[in-house]
Design a protein that fits this description.
Length: 805
């Protein structure tokens, strides 16, 4: 290997590149925003380096040159190690130079050739002294400055020198920047020389930032890709001077991710057009076309789905995106359907790996899906949109197969026969069921009556209800054919409620529950293939513990006397009853799994809903829930019991005695409401009833939802009261939370009602004003969304937002 060497004051100097620490670098301003890279050229005498000691000794011996093989060997070594710098001596080489110092004349290429020719008879002995056969050294015709500055670096790599390269280097080496010479030397010494002419074509203010960024990102070690000139031109026209270095660094880092210059030029133009932050680009799955980008950015879809940043993420993350968009927007689409497709593409564009496989499979049936969408009538457009959304972006089910895409096409055909939309949660349940049932049940699911889906919808209303129901189905696999769908057909509403309860359990509990259900003797029972006497005994045994469910029809107990068509009718009724009993068994297993969490509770006075709220509370307010459960077990779960807590007593002592009595006692008002009748509004003292304040109205405080922990704070803290609106039969129609803030205001929270929301809201507003007057407290009228409300017993509490009556 050759080393970068240079002659300096008659001595051989070894050159090396070194990067200074940040504290020692220069802080000269740069118009393009770049900073000193710290690279410098350091020199070292050959005598100090053991690796260069043979060259140093050869140079010393040439101070007394002779007509010998030793001088020829030393001259050959110097000729290959040191470039001829074009330094012509004042006087020519003496004719009789034997015994003299010939080193001052070795910078002249002609003198070198003359000496090699004169000493040629000693070549064989010289090669023996060197121990190697040096190839013939070609002298490079270059200027004295280039030979002195740059030839040592390029000769160390045995690279060729050209006039174009010398022109590029001389163009770049202008100015007095400390690291400019070192950066050029770095490219000559270890980088791709093709970068130098490319950078030399840029403006003077851009050359140094490009050199610094190129070396910093290590891209100088790779050859410039095709189209790099176009990228640098785009960078020049679209970038301001102060951010030039930052954008150039981003482009070079993107090149390291295998992005093409053509793609980066397009990306830079796109981000500048839509005023987006240009960040490092990953290797795109697809290079989008400008026409398709323009089409999707100006279509009639929702504005949030046409965000330029999201569209770019989709276009670069999905294979053949341009082709898919071209076909999607070839004909007008319903806005709802277009939104669902773009939202699905947006979801897939954010993910890699599995999502790429899902997109490829979807793309294979893209045209077939579009044909079904175009054939969907206007009245079913929202249902078709919900089906597409559920099939592609449902977070609970990430697995996707080619067959499920075919199933989507079948369901797009099926929804044309629906009379109306069964509910926004039903498509998600259809997709979850499709993932669980066996192949034999696929046609049955497809032909499920529309009324069954509509009956299921009320159980899925509210925060987390649908999610819990889908999670509850996650382990419902390997069941006998027709078992899961049979239970659904027998009682859709109870089936959805049971799935929702199962979804509130932990993963291990759900797995054990479904395993126990599969092992239950009623689960594999098939009335069509099992002897009827055996079925009757089994059903009677299980129906005895579930008397509210029908069992074996009386006619079947004398089945031998029935005609075949009559027997078939009653056998169908028996099958439906078996499915209802299976659902009852499954509900019992869910109850068993829930109560198994609380082995210390033995009383039957705790409602199942209270246990559901306690089980889903997590770490928040766990201690408070434990105290409440013990109170429920001893039938003490009333407002009077919780007010005896020392923390509540301390808070009540701060209130005037009359105000504290009015706050704890409250009052009731009655009023007739249309379609409901007489309604009575007042505070609730039963703590277990307070825990239902979210479940009865499908809010985020529902059992199994993410804020259910806050209900125990509303029940136990003395500064909070829950108001219920009940009819004459005791049914709850609306509720509201009120609290006394630390600032001495009565804070009212939103009213939740089942129906007639406006009328009930006016009643609650009248109650709040009357309550504030009775307490002699002002209502909270501040524009702030939250009020300072203390947490007395419970550690965590959810602020639902203030309502100003």
């Amino acid at each position: 290997m050759q080393f970068p060497l240079r002659l300096q004051a008659g001595r051989i100097i070894f050159l090396r590149l070194e990067q200074l620490p940040a504290a020692q670098r220069a802080h000269t301003p740069c118009p393009a925003g770049s900073q000193d890279s710290g690279w410098r050229i350091q020199t070292e005498h050959c005598e100090k380096s053991p690796a260069l000691l043979p060259i140093s000794e050869a140079w010393r011996r040439l101070s007394r040159a002779t007509h010998s093989a030793r001088t020829l060997a030393d001259l050959s070594l110097i000729q290959h190690a040191l470039p001829a710098d074009g330094a012509f001596p004042v006087t020519p080489l003496p004719r009789h130079w034997h015994g003299r110092d010939i080193r001052p004349w070795l910078g002249d290429p002609a003198t070198r050739q003359h000496l090699m020719k004169v000493l040629a008879p000693h070549r064989r002995e010289a090669l023996q002294l060197l121990g190697m056969d040096l190839p013939h050294a070609h002298d490079v015709h270059t200027s004295a400055s280039a030979a002195h500055l740059w030839l040592p670096w390029i000769r160390s790599r045995s690279q060729a020198w050209s006039d174009a390269l010398e022109t590029a280097v001389s163009t770049l080496n202008r100015g007095f920047v400390p690291d400019r010479e070192a950066l050029i030397a770095t490219l000559l010494h270890e980088g791709e020389i093709a970068w130098l002419p490319l950078i030399a074509q840029q403006t003077a203010t851009e050359q140094l930032p490009l050199l610094r960024t190129l070396v910093e990102t290590k891209q100088h070690l790779r050859p410039p890709p095709a189209g790099m000139h176009r990228l640098l031109t785009t960078l020049h026209h679209l970038t301001h001077a102060k951010e030039y270095t930052h954008i150039a660094r981003t482009c070079f880092l993107s090149l390291a991710n295998n992005c093409t210059p053509r793609f980066l030029a397009h990306a830079l133009h796109y981000h500048r057009q839509w005023k987006l932050e240009f960040q490092t680009q990953a290797c795109p799955m697809h290079e989008p076309c400008r026409r398709q980008l323009h089409l999707v950015l100006h279509c009639n879809a929702a504005k949030w789905l046409r965000s330029p940043k999201q569209i770019w993420q989709q276009a670069t993350g999905l294979k053949d995106w341009s082709s898919a968009i071209e076909r999607l927007l070839a004909r007008p689409l319903y806005k709802e359907v277009l939104d669902s497709i773009l939202e699905a593409m947006r979801h897939l564009g954010r993910k890699r790996g599995k999502a790429a496989v899902k997109w490829t499979r979807w793309l294979n049936l893209w045209d077939a899906m579009l044909r079904e969408v175009y054939a969907t009538p206007w009245a079913r457009r929202q249902l078709a949109a919900d089906l597409i959304e559920a099939w592609r972006i449902n977070p609970e089910h990430l697995s996707m197969t080619t067959h499920s895409v075919h199933q989507l096409l079948l369901w797009l055909q099926r929804v044309r026969t629906f009379e109306k939309h069964p509910g926004e949660d039903i498509p998600v349940m259809i997709e979850a069921l499709w993932e669980c049932i066996s192949t034999e049940d696929h046609p049955t699911l497809l032909q499920m009556p529309e009324k069954a889906w509509r009956q299921m919808q009320p159980a899925l209303v509210g925060w987390s209800s649908r999610t819990n129901a889908v999670i509850g189905l996650s382990h419902a696999r390997l069941l006998p054919a027709g078992c899961l769908l049979g239970m659904l057909l027998a009682s859709p509403l109870e089936w959805a409620r049971t799935m929702r309860r199962i979804g509130e359990l932990e993963w291990r509990e759900r797995k054990e529950l479904w395993e126990a259900f599969r092992e239950h003797p009623l689960t594999p029972c098939d009335a069509a293939h099992t002897p009827l006497p055996h079925v009757i005994v089994l059903v009677d045994t299980i129906q005895a513990s579930h008397p509210r469910f029908p069992g074996v029809p009386d006619k079947l107990r004398a089945a031998g006397k029935l005609h075949e068509h009559v027997k078939t009718h009653y056998m169908d009724e028996l099958t439906r009853n078996i499915h209802r009993l299976r659902l009852a068994v499954l509900d019992d297993l869910a109850e068993w799994a829930l109560r198994r969490r609380f082995p210390h509770l033995h009383g039957g006075h705790i409602a199942t809903h209270t246990l559901r709220v306690a089980a889903g509370a997590g770490e928040e307010n766990r201690r408070s829930f434990r105290r409440l459960l013990h109170a429920c077990e001893h039938q003490q779960a009333t407002r009077e019991w919780t007010l005896s807590h020392p923390a509540n007593q301390q808070w009540l002592c701060k209130l005037p005695r009359q105000r504290a009595e009015q706050w704890n006692g409250g009052f009731f008002i009655e009023h007739d409401v249309r379609d409901i009748g007489a309604v009575r509004i007042g505070p609730e003292d039963d703590l277990q009833a307070i825990l239902r304040m979210g479940t009865d109205f499908g809010t985020c405080l529902s059992a199994g939802s993410f804020n259910s922990f806050s209900t125990v704070a509303n029940a136990l803290d003395a500064n909070k009261r829950v108001l219920y609106a009940r009819d004459t039969q005791g049914r709850v129609w609306a509720r509201q939370l009120v609290a006394i803030s630390d600032s001495g205001h009565l804070v009212c929270f939103p009213v939740y009602a089942r129906r007639s929301h406006a009328a009930l809201r006016h009643l609650f507003a009248a109650y709040d004003h009357t309550f504030a007057q009775a307490l002699r407290l002002p209502l909270w009228k501040s524009r702030e969304d939250t009020a300072p409300i203390a947490k007395i017993i419970c550690k965590e509490w959810y602020d639902d937002g203030i309502w100003r009556p």
